[in-house]
């Protein structure tokens, strides 16, 4: 062992092993009558723990993987130090010969290399417009959409729009009235988009990702919105894609993950130990918490590092939630205000609700990100 290196002890080997130890495992709270019991576990052992940590410099939540330092006291592992395992950079992952197809799609290595070397350099200006909480039953939202569409129709259409739900200001109810109300929103959008000739000519894609209050089962990943609820939108408007949630998009060699979920808000609810806060924080999230929340998700390499009862993931599709290797960009739509940060060469963005008129413009090849505002037509 080299100087400065430390020995990692498995959870199973902690029993009867005196002295300070460093172990790695899943930290979780037991769902039983003894409120407040925590355990750390790996594939072979579940060990009761006592959290003697007052605060952490990084997010630590229920059902997250951690490095824990402490010592055995009786049958309990007393933890007085917590460390987060840092994410592996994309470059390092690819050096390990991780298949590029793990991201999704059926393109071969030769096809991906051709896209990167031959087509990507001559299409470096391709732009993605990303929006969240696009309420199609709101007149102000529809006005802002029309202004945005007309602006890009004249200035030059983007490569794609990514619309994340919810697509109605009120939760979908599976009644005749609920279906009618929901379909009307897409009818309005369809009417608005019929005149976008420059978008059609340039082959712009319109990607729609359902939100938690849109139609569908409350499980992850969520299935695409069905045609009968979207007024046959995808059949009548060229380039429309009804996508899953989360959605993975490959733009030449660039990999983008979009996810509509309030995971950033839920992280706070499931904190195992408090996060060290900046002096400026009064309540909720500050800049430090935003950055640490983004880092935590990327370090965990999973879009929803939360307890099972909160994440509600279909286990046979859990791989769709993975963030390994790290993509080039991750966009999260939810109730959290817009912010962006970079970590391990991955751009992480909370898109924020569109009802305030803000959205993001992302240039994947250039690796540039801009927050934009819809101009006020009245002013």
UniProtKB/TrEMBL annotation:
GO BP terms, alphabetized: DNA-templated DNA replication; error-prone translesion synthesis
InterPro entries: DNA_pol_a/d/e_bsu, POLE2
Keyword terms of this UniProt record: DNA replication, DNA-binding, Nucleus
Localization, UniProt: Nucleus
Any one of the GO CC terms: epsilon DNA polymerase complex
Keyword DNA-binding: yes
Domain DNA polymerase alpha/delta/epsilon subunit B: 128-340
Residues in coiled coil: none
Listed Pfam families: DNA_pol_E_B
Signal peptide start and end residues: none
Keyword Heme: no
Sample GO molecular function, one term: DNA binding
Family assignment from sequence similarity: Belongs to the DNA polymerase epsilon subunit B family.
Record-given protein name: DNA polymerase II subunit 2
Organism: Symbiodinium pilosum (Dinoflagellate)
Gene: DPB2
């Amino acid at each position: 062992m080299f100087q400065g290196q430390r020995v990692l002890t498995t959870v199973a080997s902690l029993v009867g092993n005196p002295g300070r130890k460093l172990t790695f495992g899943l930290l979780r709270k037991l769902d039983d009558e003894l409120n407040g019991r925590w355990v750390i576990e790996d594939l072979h052992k579940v060990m009761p723990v006592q959290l003697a940590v007052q605060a952490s410099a990084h997010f630590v939540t229920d059902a997250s993987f951690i490095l824990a330092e402490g010592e055995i006291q009786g049958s309990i592992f007393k933890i007085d130090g917590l460390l987060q395992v840092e994410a592996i950079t994309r470059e390092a992952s690819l050096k390990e010969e991780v298949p590029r197809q793990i991201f999704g799609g059926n393109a071969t290595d030769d096809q991906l290399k051709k896209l990167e070397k031959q087509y990507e350099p001559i299409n470096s200006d391709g732009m993605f417009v990303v929006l969240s909480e696009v309420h199609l039953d709101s007149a102000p939202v529809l006005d802002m959409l029309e202004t945005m569409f007309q602006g890009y129709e004249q200035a030059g259409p983007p490569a794609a729009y990514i619309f994340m739900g919810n697509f109605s200001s009120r939760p979908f109810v599976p009644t005749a009235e609920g279906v009618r109300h929901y379909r009307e929103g897409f009818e309005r959008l369809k009417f608005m988009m019929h005149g976008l000739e420059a978008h059609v000519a340039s082959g712009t894609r319109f990607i729609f990702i359902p939100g938690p209050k849109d139609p569908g089962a409350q499980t992850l990943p969520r299935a695409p919105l069905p045609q009968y609820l979207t007024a046959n939108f995808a059949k009548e408007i060229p380039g429309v894609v009804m996508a899953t949630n989360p959605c993975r998009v490959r733009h030449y060699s660039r990999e983008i993950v979009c996810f509509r979920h309030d995971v950033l808000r839920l992280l706070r609810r499931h904190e195992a130990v408090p996060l060290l806060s900046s002096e400026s924080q009064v309540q909720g999230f500050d800049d430090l918490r935003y950055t640490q929340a983004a880092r935590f998700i990327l370090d965990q390499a999973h879009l929803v590092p939360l307890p099972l009862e909160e994440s509600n993931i279909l286990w046979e599709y859990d791989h769709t939630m993975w963030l390994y290797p790290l993509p080039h960009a991750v966009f999260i739509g939810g109730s959290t205000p817009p912010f962006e940060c970079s970590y391990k060469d991955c751009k992480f963005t909370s898109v924020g609700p569109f009802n305030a008129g803000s959205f993001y413009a992302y240039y994947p090849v250039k690796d540039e990100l801009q927050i934009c505002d819809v101009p006020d037509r009245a002013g």
